[in-house]
Amino acid sequence: MQLSARNQLPGTVVSIKEGAVMAEVVVQLVGGPEVVSAITVSSVQRLKLAPGSPVTVVVKATEVMLATND
């Protein structure tokens, strides 16, 4: 699948916390930090996500903020 988003980061699902409608999916990026994604429970089921599943984190944003300690 090709996407317009350039920020595609490979990783592995570490954990999934399901609520009534939404799920919190924690992904360990290859060689980097963890990223947390909030997606619907139905998406977790449709994608057959489970701890250990390889995934690609796709970030598409029109605004990305940067901060310094100054």
From TrEMBL:
The keyword Transcription regulation does not apply. One of its GO terms (biological process) is molybdate ion transport. InterPro entries: Mo/tungstate-bd_C_term_dom, Mop_domain, Transp-assoc_OB_typ1. Gene3D superfamilies: 2.40.50.100. It comes from the Bacteria. Keywords: Molybdenum. The keyword Transcription does not apply. PROSITE patterns: MOP (PS51866). Residues 2-68 form the Mop domain. This is Mop domain-containing protein.
